[in-house]
Amino acid sequence: MPSPVSLNLNYVAPFVADHEWEQLRPAVSRAHRLLHTGTGAGAEFLGWLDLPEKGNHEELAHIEKTAVRIREYADVFIVIGIGGSSLGSKAVISGLNHSFHSFLHPKKKNSPDVFFLGEHFASDYTAELLEALDGKSVYVNVISKSGTTTEPAIAFRIIKTWLEKTYGKEEAKKRIIATTDREKGALKTMADGEGYETFVVPDDVGGRYSVLTPVGLLPIAVGGISIQDLLAGARAACREYNEEHLMHNQAYQYAAFRYLMYQKGKQIELLSTYEPKLTNFCEWWKQLFGESEGKDGKGVFPASATFTTDLHSMGQYIQEGRRHLFETVLYIGKSRNKIEIPQSKGDEDGLDFLSGDHLDAINEKAYQGTMLAHTDGSVPNLILEMEQLDAFSLGALIYFFEKACALSGYLLGVNPFDQPGVESYKQNMYALLGKPGHENRRAELEERLNEWA
Ligand SMILES: O=P(O)(O)OC[C@H]1O[C@](O)(CO)[C@@H](O)[C@@H]1O
């Protein structure tokens, strides 16, 4: 099956000359070979590359079996994780599930509500979630590749305490599933000690590339989404975006386009969508590209917008602000539902010219009008089209971006698989919190804070 993702370069022609594509071809081939021979920077994290092809059947069966059990007994499933340990499943679940799942009548739900925790230190969010759990049957998946990330670790301590108080220690253990490293980290030690059911984050897959491992697949399956379809889409993409030649590989064309834009001073990429269900997908994409490329003083800054909503807040800037933007539009051909604009007697609102039209058709005109306007305003628009939003298409889109991102990182000359810069805030935070071993830094930071107070 071909990939359902299609790259439309028609509208970027005014911004990139044919010879620019051609001149980039050898660099793309070089980057492709670094990736496929495992000789580039960070090659120890290439496990995602053929993951959809390899397919670990035993593991998938385990995920599906666990998901069936949780779906049968849980009202609420809490995913505890941050970054790559939560963004992927959140993107897919909110992309494919009912937008108002929590408010559906219980008889209409075929899966628990999935809530996320451990993505920040916000007290009110945490307290309100705990309040919402009252009287519900709750299961928890705590996910951390390192097993030591502070946000999810604290969230887990809070939820574990709640579970033990609510169900007793033994029953709580049966409601906790840990997804972490095969052998190391505090979470692994705790899971072994308590006897939690566990899933493994492969050593050779970094957090932001892990959505198609148990990290993403268990929450997605609990959310009632076919992980087989998701993986089938990723497999189709894996086969399709395997060509070395730039002109035969749309994932590479996307990466090359970003590179050319960056060279021309377009330092910000706006991933826009006309489908609010994809807002969280954009968040996943931001981590993928931001953490992969933003280093060594380089990198396109990944931003996102949901249209037409954000045209009424950011539209002015996009149209006429500083010209350092290019845009990648995620465009979905048709929605699952058709909504017709009703007739209205008297036409007081002047909208009768739209009576009988469908919202999808109006959304399409909004997209076309915006794309032309932004292009006129020197914001090049590259379009990624998908016929429909389903698990197969989303699986393909995930892989499309993963492949493009890795290649893009090599084109830029960075290691697309590490994230050393994230440590800076963590070290400061540990020091300020008084974590043992950070005493000297604490004194120094507190002095600076006092100077600035
Ligand atoms: O799964 P972990 O190890 O808790 O990490 C969560 C996230 O934190 C980071 O390591 C950054 O600190 C990301 O790369 C990662 O996705």
Please give a structural write-up.
With 453 residues, the chain is an alpha/beta fold. The chain has two domains: 5-41 and 243-412, 3-Layer(aba) Sandwich (Rossmann fold), CATH 3.40.50; 51-230, Glucose-6-phosphate isomerase like protein, domain 1 (Rossmann fold, 3-Layer(aba) Sandwich), CATH 3.40.50.10490. 48% of the residues lie in helices and 13% in strands. It is built from 17 helices and ten strands. A five-stranded mixed beta sheet has the order 1-10-9-7-8, with helices on both faces. A five-stranded parallel beta sheet has the order 3-2-4-5-6, sandwiched between helices. Helix 1 (18-36) packs across helix 11 (250-263), helix 3 runs parallel beside helix 9 and helix 16 packs across helix 17. The chain is globular. It starts with a strand and ends with a helix. The model has no long low-confidence stretch (mean pLDDT 97). It binds 6-O-phosphono-beta-D-fructofuranose. The site of 6-O-phosphono-beta-D-fructofuranose has 14 residues, from loops.
